[in-house]
From TrEMBL:
Domain HTH gntR-type: 2-70
Pfam families: GntR, UTRA
UniProt protein name: Trehalose operon repressor
SUPFAM superfamilies: Chorismate lyase-like, Winged helix' DNA-binding domain
Entry keyword set: DNA-binding, Transcription, Transcription regulation
Chain segments annotated as coiled-coil in the UniProt record: none
Amino acid sequence: MINKYLTIYNEIVEQIEAGILEPNSLLPSENDLKDRYNTSRETIRKALNLLSQKGYIQKIRGKGSVVIDIDKFDFPVSGLVSFKELAQKMGNKPKTVVNELSLITPDQEIKQQLNLAKKDLVWKVVRTRVINGKKIILDKDYFNKKLVPELTIEICENSIYEYLEDELGLKISFAKKEITVEQPTEEDKNLLDLEGFQTIVIIKNYVYLDDATLFQYTESRHRPDKFKFVDFARRTH
């Protein structure tokens, strides 16, 4: 049986994501929520604390719990999730277009990024992410073929991580990320709907397995107006 505070948390999340509870609005007081859900104040506080930890509300002393604006698509900086996993939280049916899938001899830059030996081959995958009919992310992935022996268009359209974990049994563990803002390249202009934007946000990901083996290097190139990159840090005392 699901805990009462999780039921309350899930219901409030649904109201926030549906826009019923608008950004910058106040949640009802703890007393009002206690009466509404016919539960204890401790249960309400556990639900509110979880909402705060997940970035849905900000608790302000003397004011209450304020709803945070989640209108833009959230890409967690500290998390390591696939686009498919993020897309499942979106109600607007994102789409992935595979622009390129090829097995290549990497140039010197990619060799350095992936710490490759001289004769190692690499899967190059270029995908455009389409949301609300707009091409707003360009992902350029490079996978070490020794660790990822096979890829197909179908896998790349669905979820590479799902394939690696469920089919190949790889354990993806952690990533190092670098975030920069740069001018778009001609490739960006051709494969994204930049609509006059003069900059793009680039996240470089170096992704490791649980034995600390580097197996993937990615450049994720984002149109700047559609995304906020989020992380929630809390000071401990």
